[in-house]
Amino acid sequence: MRTPRRRRDPTTVVEATRAGYHVVLRVAAALSLGCAALAALLFRSGPSPVTPHTDVGARRRAAHQHVRTSGAHGAPNVRSTVKAARFSRFGGPEVLEIVSLPDPHPGPGQVRIVVHAAGVNATEWKLRKGVVSFGAELPQTTGRDVAGVVDELGEGVTDVAVGDRVFGVSDDGAGAAELALLTFRAVIPPTLGFVDAAGLPCALETATRTLDQLDVAPGTTLLVNGATGGVGSAAVQLAVARGARVIGVAGPANQGYLRSLGAEPVTYGDGMVEQVRALAPDGVDAALDVAGSGVLPQLIELAGGSHSVLTVADFEGSTEYGVRFSNGFVDGNAFHALAEVGELIEAGRFWLPVERTFPLAEIGEAHRISENGHVRGRLVLVVNQGPSPVSAAG
Ligand SMILES: NC(=O)c1ccc[n+]([C@@H]2O[C@H](COP(=O)([O-])OP(=O)(O)OC[C@H]3O[C@@H](n4cnc5c(N)ncnc54)[C@H](OP(=O)(O)O)[C@@H]3O)[C@@H](O)[C@H]2O)c1
């Protein structure tokens, strides 16, 4: 068995450049609309935030009342700003800075939320380092997973109202900020706080999409490599909820945690295949690679062929071994998972632990820990505690 290694995500600028410019464009476009759902929706001018009301109808009407400060000729002369994390060059966590940006306003179908908490997932540091490209130019904002309170509605929005607690994916990859725009969102399950909800969106979407692609159903024996991170923890629990038997691959310190999720744990490294064989002598029905740790040949062997293996993290290996690489742009996102998970959460059958929280100003430390590659569940930034983060700037 090859020594498992942490591979650079193969959908990188460097590797894609080697493969040809057309691959850069294809991968960038695909990733740009993958789990992160970067819909290239730009900040727009529009209504200012409103005070929440209790009545839903009143809240919706209030959301469309504009408060605008105008100059002598009717043009706005005061702009509002919000704090947001951004980087102006690719590099280590030190390139992240907190800046003031114009407050965003929702377009059709979007809502704006006051961000209470924002998840930090592996994609964030890859974008910051420039090893994954969404095609965006520098400077870039950062952050996809968010949870907060709706404070402004775009045209045509009827599913939520101002004042609702929602979680979702920041449309323009600017979730590590005081305000964010969301197209894909759901109401936060009643028993869940903002911090716990902020870790969920991308993990839920990716896990649901990949389990569907692998046809995971009652009776399936599924092997998950990288079973204890954000996506892995979600995939294990959602598969168990579908009635599957799950064998999870993780480090020695996470064996008990995997059991608590409902999986049968094995450790990565030498002997992984033998450990799985001891649990499933005939092999597994399907294997999901979330870690991208260079074990696709072993997963193919255990699943009886490359057709039963899927990876979200090993693009290079997927082409080398004929394994499907899943991303939301090509395969279709599974954002319906956000609304569906509430039932499991309320029944106590799903949770995604938050390993640690950070204030927005310490986003660099969160990136550093994420990049180290051994987060259990998610890291979360705590952004706003109060109702309105918008401040006036001349
Ligand atoms: N293509 C897509 O649509 C898509 C969408 C979302 C994410 N992704 C990718 O999916 C990957 C996972 O994302 P994430 O946010 O869930 O990451 P994450 O939370 O940072 O994953 C950390 C986990 O990886 C585990 N791990 C580290 N080395 C391992 C190894 N050699 N073998 C098995 N597990 C290992 C760690 O377990 P231990 O602590 O036990 O070592 C840790 O629990 C990333 O590469 C991300 O870019 C792809």
Explain this structure.
- This protein is an alpha/beta fold and 394 residues long.
- It is 30% helix and 23% strand.
- The protein is built from 14 helices and 16 strands.
- Strands 3, 5, 6, 7, 14 and 15 form a 6-stranded mixed β-sheet that branches. Strands 10-9-8-11-12-13 form a 6-stranded parallel β-sheet, with helices on both faces. Strands 1, 2, 4 and 16 form a 4-stranded antiparallel β-sheet that branches.
- The longest helix has 13 residues.
- The N terminus is likely disordered.
- Bound molecules: NADP nicotinamide-adenine-dinucleotide phosphate.
- The site of NADP nicotinamide-adenine-dinucleotide phosphate (NAP) has 37 residues, from helix 4, helix 6, helix 7 and strand 9.
Largest sheet: 6 strands, mixed
Strand content: 15-25%
Residue share in helices?
Answer: 25-40%
Instruction: Tell me the CATH topology of the largest domain.
Output: Quinone Oxidoreductase, Chain A, domain 1
Number of strands: 16
Second CATH tier, the architecture of the largest domain: Alpha-Beta Complex
Tally of domains: 2
Distance between the termini: 62 Å
Overall 3D shape: globular
Q: Under the CATH scheme, which class of the largest domain?
A: Alpha Beta
Computed CA radius of gyration, to the nearest angstrom: 21 Å
> What is the overall number of helices?
14
CATH superfamily of the largest domain: Medium-chain alcohol dehydrogenases, catalytic domain
Output the structural class.
alpha/beta
Helix and strand sequence = HHHEEEHEEEEHHEHEHEHEHEHEHHEHEE
| Bound ligands, named by name, code or SMILES | NADP nicotinamide-adenine-dinucleotide phosphate
Uncertain residue ranges: 1-78
Mean pLDDT: 83
